[in-house]
């Protein structure tokens, strides 16, 4: 009976897989990998529990639930503002109620790779701001950071408390086959989206409580507590007693304000704005109803550039005048450390295999996506000849802006991009168009496959690296689309790591 | 607690109270207009604009055209009216977002859901048939938020800042409503004690939701003196000036205790208290109700300013 039900669901779904394959958005159709169903239409083991549950459900009831999810998000106010649109407009990131599932074994392998990579990143930044052994050894070119806008002279020779630069990291992963995971991007500056990881799980548990008694899923709710612990473990020398942790937000009009408030709330920390803080007696202090009180650790969601008008952008109203001096004299911990952005750069990304090997002495466990640096003449030639096949990205870009996806771009777009590329080749890298894995999303017409990526959240403290079992799965809701960014119409899913 | 957060809580509840009081005023106005002839109805709508303190911006837009639908839409949703109920409620929500990590999620959801509801009802001009529902929903929003707060909020300083905002605003708005209505009804002292148009006095009580309580206490007898005494000095009625100040005093005392320090606001509160305790209804009429109310409003504002200063709301 069970076998038959699954077969029905699988057939229905597989038909849709094929339909989207025929659209020709993928250069190599054979590389296509669906995480729920194998090529024969059988359910893969990680999804067996979910599919069993799914087949027992009344489909019209599921459709009603589908509608409920949105109104529940709107009520709780999990919204974000889209840059470039009406400032006051609050949008929801669409939520899909089919979980993305990863087996315990797969997860173990991933975490080893992530831990290795994050440790290397942290060691790399330390090295860059100290002896620069990696440059002396000639493993990466000096121009990599000389031209890097995120490089901060103020950080040279300074060691942050606990020797930690990247307190919070998001590693973007993509999958193309059963054992083929790649790192697409390292987010060591201010990775956002963790509130969605937490709220998506809350929503799933509220909507389908019985599902969680049928399938054993690792909890993600430990994240805020771990974050608070991890930040407290990096308290500065001036801190005496229990560290006072605060989240620094640009304010309620910032696109991620909900997340800032949410994390402060979950950690039991103060949510501060620049105007609440002032440097007094060599400490950063916040204005409370009792008077000024020192802050020990600041989890800032304000970019380096706006952090200190005395050191950086002098017009910034979002930061704290003098905070960099306090930082350098051991009066406060700033997470993530200023200047950490040097490694978010896509040119640095292209050297990550060398970087990992240099600092850990091991081969990278998680590979990079093949990357052509357009600064390199031969690579540029190749890229220009194959623009229709490639994804070209700005070295400093993020959020899916300013990139070319060759296979889906029009002739005109490609021609325009070719000109930009020829004018400033150093500004770009190129990668093959990956056949990103698909997982099903729920639609009124049933399950349909859509491309996904995965951002696990990683915490670094002097005590070690902590990876929350799960993460944020972003899903491209448009058929055939490979762009999962929320700013470009992507949605999110709950991400399950199964218990052993 | 951050000074900015205390400020956010204080103003969030001031705006909530303001929206609610404006809705009561509108409700009473509507009822009045319905029970009177055409000319008196216009007069009633005109007085409503006067009471809202937006005479100039109304005149600029409608040039004295006091029809019901002009007036209620102006008060509910008109962008020319900076104090319209929708934008007042939006202020409630903006402040709530700002202090989101110090209010319980139930309080937040009560505000957010109410706002979503009002926003959708006030997207377009409101027809007479829907007015009662909108106005009722604004009042219900206040009830929901206060209920969620009573049931779920930690009794620390945030709670007391929120309540202080509520009572400062309530005292202010009740005093202003009383002043304006009274002035319209009794242009000079010689009218005190003369036979009154009961429906109009009923309307004064209704504007502050005190009609039923007053009738219960006075067996249906309506007189100007009794009503003023009820709205100013009766500590049993939760919207009277005396009640507001007594509640405010308690919250300021709790704040002083939590901060281990008496501030300027506690001192001003004590003075205001003494004045209220010593005042009888005869004193009020002897002095002149208008003068009494103006002094009351000024004392109330000084207390609010002192709270902001004592607890470092903005600096």
Automatic annotation (TrEMBL), chain B:
**InterPro entries recorded for this chain?**
ATP-dep_Glu-Cys_Ligase-2, DUF403
Superkingdom is Bacteria
Q: Which intervals hold domain DUF403? A: 1-311
Q: Which Pfam families match?
A: Alpha-E
User: PANTHER family from the xrefs?
Assistant: BLR5612 PROTEIN, SLL1039 PROTEIN
By what name is this protein known?
DUF403 domain-containing protein
Q: Which organism is it from?
A: Pontixanthobacter luteolus
């Amino acid at each position: 009976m069970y076998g038959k039900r699954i077969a029905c669901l699988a057939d229905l779904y597989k038909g849709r897989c094929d339909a989207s394959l025929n659209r020709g958005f993928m250069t190599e159709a054979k590389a296509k990998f669906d995480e729920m169903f194998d090529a024969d239409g059988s359910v893969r083991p990680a999804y067996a529990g979910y599919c069993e549950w799914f087949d027992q459900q009344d489909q019209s009831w599921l459709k009603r639930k589908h509608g409920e999810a949105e109104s529940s998000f709107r009520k709780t106010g999990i919204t974000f503002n889209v840059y470039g649109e009406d400032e006051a407009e609050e949008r929801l990131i669409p939520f899909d109620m089919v979980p993305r599932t990863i087996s315990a074994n797969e997860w173990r392998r991933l975490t080893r790779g992530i831990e290795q990579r994050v440790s290397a990143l942290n060691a790399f930044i330390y090295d860059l701001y100290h002896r620069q052994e990696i440059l002396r050894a000639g493993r990466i070119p000096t121009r990599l950071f000389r031209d890097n806008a995120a490089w901060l002279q103020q950080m040279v020779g300074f060691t942050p408390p606990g020797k930690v630069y990247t307190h919070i990291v998001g590693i973007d992963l993509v999958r193309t086959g059963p054992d083929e995971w790649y790192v697409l991007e390292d987010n060591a500056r201010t990775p956002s989206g963790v509130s969605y990881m937490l709220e998506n799980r809350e929503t799933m548990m509220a909507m389908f409580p019985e599902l969680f008694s049928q399938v054993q899923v690792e909890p993600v709710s430990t994240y805020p507590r771990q974050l608070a612990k991890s930040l407290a473990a990096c308290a500065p020398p001036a801190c005496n007693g229990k560290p006072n942790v605060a989240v620094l937000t640009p304010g309620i009009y910032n696109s991620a304000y909900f997340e800032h408030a949410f994390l402060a709330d979950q950690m039991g920390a103060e949510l501060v704005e620049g105007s609440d803080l002032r440097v007094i007696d060599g400490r950063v202090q916040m204005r409370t109803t009792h008077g000024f009180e020192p802050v020990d650790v600041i989890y800032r969601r304000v970019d380096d550039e706006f952090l200190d008008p005395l050191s950086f952008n002098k017009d910034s109203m979002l930061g704290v005048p003098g905070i960099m001096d306090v930082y350098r004299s051991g009066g406060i911990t700033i997470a993530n450390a200023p200047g950490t952005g040097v490694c978010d750069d896509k040119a640095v990304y292209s050297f990550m295999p060398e970087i990992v090997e240099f600092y850990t002495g091991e081969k990278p466990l998680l590979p990079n996506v093949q990357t052509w640096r357009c600064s390199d003449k031969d690579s540029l030639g190749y890229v220009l000849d194959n623009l229709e096949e490639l994804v070209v990205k700005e070295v400093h870009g993020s959020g899916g802006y300013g990139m070319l996806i060759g296979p889906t771009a029009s002739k005109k777009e490609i021609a325009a991009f070719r000109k930009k590329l020829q004018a400033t080749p150093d500004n770009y890298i190129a990668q093959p168009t990956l056949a990103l894995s698909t997982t099903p999303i729920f639609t009124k017409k049933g399950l349909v496959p859509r491309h996904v990526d995965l951002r696990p959240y990683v915490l670094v403290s002097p005590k070690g690296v902590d990876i929350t079992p799960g993460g944020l799965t972003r899903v491209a809701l448009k058929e055939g689309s490979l762009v999962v960014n929320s700013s470009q119409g992507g949605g999110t899913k709950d991400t399950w790591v199964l218990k052993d | 607690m951050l000074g900015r957060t205390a400020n956010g809580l204080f103003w969030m509840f001031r705006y909530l109270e303001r929206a609610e009081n404006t809705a009561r005023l509108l409700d009473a106005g509507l009822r009045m207009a319905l029970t009177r002839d055409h000319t008196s109805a216009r007069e009633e709508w005109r007085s409503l604009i006067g009471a809202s303190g937006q005479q100039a911006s109304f005149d600029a837009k409608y040039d004295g055209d006091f029809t019901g639908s002009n007036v209620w839409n102006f008060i509910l949703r008109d962008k020319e009216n900076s104090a319209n109920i929708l934008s007042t409620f939006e202020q409630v929500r903006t402040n709530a977002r700002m202090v989101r990590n110090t209010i319980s999620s139930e309080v937040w959801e009560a505000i957010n859901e109410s706002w979503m509801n009002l926003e959708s009802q006030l997207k377009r001009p409101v027809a007479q048939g829907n007015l009662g529902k909108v106005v009722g929903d604004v009042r219900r929003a206040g009830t929901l938020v206060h209920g969620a707060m009573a049931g779920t909020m930690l009794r620390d300083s945030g709670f007391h800042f929120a309540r202080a905002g509520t009572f400062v605003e309530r005292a202010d708005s009740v005093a202003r409503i009383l002043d304006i209505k009274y002035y319209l009804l009794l242009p000079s002292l010689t009218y005190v004690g003369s036979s009154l148009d009961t429906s109009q006095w009923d309307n004064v009580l209704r504007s502050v939701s005190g009609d039923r309580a007053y009738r219960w206490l006075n067996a249906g007898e309506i007189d100007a003196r009794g009503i003023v005494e009820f709205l100013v000095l009766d500590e049993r009625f939760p919207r009277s000036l005396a009640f507001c100040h007594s509640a405010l005093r308690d919250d300021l005392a709790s704040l002083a205790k939590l901060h281990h320090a008496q501030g300027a606001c506690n001192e001003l509160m004590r003075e205001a208290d003494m004045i209220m305790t010593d005042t009888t209804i005869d004193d009020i009429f002897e002095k002149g109700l208008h003068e009494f109310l103006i002094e009351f409003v000024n004392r109330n504002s000084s207390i609010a300013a002192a709270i902001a200063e004592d607890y470092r709301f903005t600096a």
